[in-house]
């Protein structure tokens, strides 16, 4: 293998390593049906593995249809000290959460219960665009 080929392969490997997505640390709450109408899709049903995004993430509907992988990292209250199930959930942005703080997301109840006990109400999470 020539020098140029090896150099190209090395550069490609470094480029792949630097493009790894970084998780956003935040908090998640949940909302309950009905899930339509939504800001992104009106009365079109997009299923139940969905997310309402904070204003920054939503970016005036630019995030509509974007998928995220969400993982519970810990609880936020003493009522349910260990709410996490150890699983992650893949969700699609379908709506705006007007009351959400920056880095807060609002999951459907069905998505929330995949990653945590709904009795917790609010959890710490990491979410990554997929």
Give an overview of the whole structure:
- There is one protein chain.
- Helix content is 21%, strand content 32%.
- It is built from three helices and six strands.
- The longest helix has 16 residues, at 3-18.
- The radius of gyration is 18 Å and the shape is globular.
- The model has no long low-confidence stretch (mean pLDDT 90).
Structural features:
single chain; 130 residues; alpha/beta; six-stranded mixed β-barrel; 3 helices
Concise overview:
With 130 residues, the protein is of the alpha/beta class.
> H/E order of the elements?
HEEHEEEHE
Strand content: 25-35%
Strand order of the largest sheet: 1-5-2-4-3-6
Helix content: 10-25%
Q: What overall form do the CA principal axes indicate? A: globular
Give the end-to-end Cα distance, rounded to a whole number of Å. Answer: 35 Å
Biggest β-sheet description: 6 strands, mixed, barrel
Q: Runs with pLDDT <50, length 5+?
A: none
The beta-strand count equals 6
Radius of gyration: 18 Å
Q: Would you tell me the structural class of the helices and strands?
A: alpha/beta
Mean of residue pLDDT values = 90
Number of helices: 3
